[in-house]
Design goal:
With 134 residues, this protein is mainly α. It has 4 helices and no strands.
Length: 134
Amino acid sequence: MIQIYLLSVILNALVGCYFAFELKIDQEIKYPKPLTFISNKNFKLIIGILTVATGILKLLSSMDIVFVGDLLPAIAGICGGVLILYEYYVDESKEETRKIEILEKFESSSKKYVGYICLIIAIVHFIAPKVLFL
């Protein structure tokens, strides 16, 4: 489906830019009037849920030979979305005991690499959508 393909490319690029360039969704930054929704803390939650859902739908919607070409964008979307949801979870729960140890190690060591991988996969998937081994 072209809608899931477009959502996958856009959300992977957004998550990739967020992690690779360390964009922070913050209340103190003064955004232009049309971009004030970025400063909303629930924006991170919505983007995370949409990215994970799109990754799962991308896995489920491709039942033909192009499944291998959809595998990397789906996995990148799921990983990026889970990391954004984990950041939201850590920001909302102020207690240190609520952190998930595996995700904490993964986030601290390879968050920037996940961003670059999501961004590269989004660009390549946009340029060559029907490539078998993407």
